[in-house]
Amino acid sequence: MPVKNSVGALGRRTVNAVWRMGLAARFFGLTLLYSGVSFRRFRLTRREMFFSGVMSLIIIVVAGMFVGMVLALQGYETLKRYGSESALGSLVALSLVRELGPVLAALLFASRAGSAMTAEIGLMKATEQIDAMELMAVNPIARVVAPRFWAGVISMPLLSAIFSAMGVFGGYVVGVVVIGVDEGSFWSQMQSAVDFRQDVMNGVIKSVVFGVAVTVISLFEGFDAPPTAEGVSGATTRTVVESSLVILMLDFILTAFMFRGD
Amino acid sequence: MERTTLDLWVGTFVVAGIVALGVLAFKVGNLSTYNVSETYQLTAYFANIGGLKQQASIKSAGVLIGRVKEITLDTERYQAKVTMTIDKRYQFDHDTYAKILTSGLLGEQYIGLDAGGDAEMLKNGDTIEHTQSAVVLEDLIGKVINMLAEGPAKPKEANGKK
């Protein structure tokens, strides 16, 4: 009975998905509950900040530069038609600070640091290091998961700010230095268009939310991975796919809340 | 506590992030031009505010002196009630005229204040009596079409009767 089987499979998958959702929520709660250690022994968190934050710097800086340069190039072509090349600065800055900075930095963070976290924790589980910790009465969530979580949450807004700032610099290089838009109007139009609370702070809030989402997904997938080579590789793939989708969906929801056009 | 190169890198990263935020706030954003001086509030009623938005600028003689704080519809008068926050350094008298203007042909709308000649100054919470609504392009075009239709239409009718 193929029909019966496929209906059954669909049901099993749905139940499994809801089950995992509940597990992830409980996992998130436990992470927050056992967070004390990651601040009392900040050394642990700092070490993870090195691996997730500092190691992502190069990709963030280079990607930010190029995104800003492309924005300036494309924006100039379009704005030139309306004779408002001077608005190039506000175009580049607003699109970076509001959307591209937080979203692209989070996508890069998910694929650069999130996948590494999943693979690391998945392998720790496969090689029974997590079980060994439990046997030694060390709470693995407090010792392994929470420092990585907080490192990600702290790193994400910093990375996104660096991304936006590098993007503005890239836009300046292409717009002012290469194309020759007037430097004074480039910066003054930018400053009059970008509001600190409305645009910069909302971008920071976005990136904090993305940081929580990406790290929770990465850590949960690692913790939940079947202890086999295949299981860990599958979990790593799922981390990147799920985080990317969640980032884009959350971005829409947050944007709808933040910028309703009065 | 021992110092490691790892700490140095994490420190560099955090400093770079904070510097980037600072650049976004002061160089890209408008935090450096934020008015920290004291303000007072005035209200004005307009028959039509056009495309005026919250946070729109309030200018007098082209100088930025405040921002629009709130826009609501007053259901007693069925007019737009605009609350403005104005820098305390700039005082206006009771004869002040508030107009909704547009910067450039397609630019943003703002409120322009023209001072009058009254001796008494407006205080916090007072209402500006003299206002001029925004120019709505559709109304303007409608008027022009009406004028054109009324003007040359009469001789045509006369021609038809002939």
Describe this protein with a few key phrases:
heterodimer, A: 262 residues, mainly alpha, elongated, B: 162 residues, alpha/beta, eight-stranded mixed β-sheet, 2 helices
Q: Could you characterize the architecture of this molecule?
A:
The complex is a heterodimer of chains A (262) and B (162). With 262 residues, chain A is mainly α. Chain A is 87% helix and 0% strand. Chain A has helices spanning 2-33, 36-40, 42-52, 57-81, 88-126, 129-135, 140-179, 183-193, 196-224, 229-258. The longest helix of chain A is centred in the middle third of the chain and has 40 residues, at 140-179. With 162 residues, chain B is α/β, with parallel strands linked by helices. Helices cover 30% and strands 31% of the residues of chain B. Chain B is built from two helices and eight strands. The A-B interface holds A 46-47, 49-50, 53-54, 57, 93, 97, 155, 157-159, 161-162, 164-166, 168, 187, 190-192, 194-196, 198-200, 203-204, 262 and B 6-7, 9-10, 12-14, 16-21, 23-25, 27-34, 53-55.
* Oligomerization category of the chains in this entry: heterodimer
Total helices of chain B: the number is: 2
Tell me the fraction of residues in β-strands of chain A, as a range.
Answer: under 5%
Described by strand count, sense and barrel closure, the largest sheet of chain B is: 8 strands, mixed
C-alpha Rg of chain A (nearest Å) = 22 Å
- Indicate the structural class of chain B: alpha/beta
Give the largest chain-chain interface (CB within 8 Å). Answer: A-B, 32 and 27 residues
Strands of chain A, count: 0
User: How far apart, in Å, are the first and last alpha carbons of chain A?
Assistant: 57 Å
Q: Give the end-to-end Cα distance of chain B, rounded to a whole number of Å.
A: 108 Å
**Tally the helices of chain A: what do you get?**
10
Radius of gyration of chain B: 26 Å
Share of residues in strands of chain B: 25-35%
